[in-house]
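Entry:
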Amino acid sequence: MAGHFEATVEIGRPVEEVFAFLADGTNDPKFSPRVLEITKAPDGPTEVGTVFRSTVKDAGMTTKREIRISEFVPPSSLRWTETSKNIVVSKEGGYDLEPTPEGNTRLRIFNSLEGHGIGKLIVGLALSAARKDADAFGQRIKAAVEAS
């Protein structure tokens, strides 16, 4: 079983600033309390093929994650796929950004989760939790970007 969740939020910063903040995946702990640590490879600007390796805590379990950037189109879209072999993974995720007439940014966040092995039995619970938190997640991104 696989499933999708998303949220949309308006951020009081220009689209280029929001994109730059999100493209630097090492900012993730500023808005995602589940991310305990994160590194980027290779050094340098984020681009297609950049890998972010993180340690995350979900539902009391600590796991290692590896996310590879699969699309990078400044300042409008960023996509990733999870290449780690966890029981529930982000098959595809991303950000779509567009400027508003007021000079702000409308951000759409989405993720498609997929279960593997026993993860097929619990992916529904992970999706339910992610959907429940999606709007709050968007608000945490907004707060982190506006505070930067």
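The chain has a mean pLDDT of 93.
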